[in-house]
Amino acid sequence: MKKILRITALCIVLVSLLTFCGKSKIETKEDRPVFLEQVSTTAVAQLYADGFEQLSLNEKILAYYLAQAVIAGERIDYDQSHRHALEIKDMLEEIVTHKEGIDPEIYQSILVYTKLFWIDHCQYNSRTKIKFVPTCTFDEFLLAAHAAQKNGAEFDLKENETLEQKLKRLEKTIFDPKFEPLVTAKTPPPGQDILTASANNFYAPNVTLKDLEGFKEKYPLNSRVAKENGKVKELVWRTGNQDFPAGLYHKELSEVIANLRLALPYAGEQQKTTLKHMIDYFETGDPDSFRKANISWLKDDSTVDFIIGFIENYKDSRGMKGEWEGVISYVNQKTTQMMKDLAANAQYFENNAPWKDEYKKTHTQIPVANSIDVVNAGGHAGPRIPAGINLPNEQEIRENYGSKSVLLHNVMRDARGVTGGKTSQEFLETAEEKELAQKYGSLAINVIIAMHEVIGHGSGKVSPKLTEDPSFYLQEYYNTLEEARADLMALWNLFDPKLIELQILPDEDAARTGYILEAMGDLTMLRRIKTGDRIEDDHMRAGHLIQAYLEKKTLAVETFRKGGKAYRRVKDFDLFREGVGELLAEIMRIKAEGDLEAAKKLVNTYAIKIDPALRNEVIERCQKIQHPDFIAFVVPELSLVKDESGKISDVKISYPLVLMDQQLKWAGKK
Question: Which domain holds residue 153?
Answer without folding.
Answer: 83-121+133-176
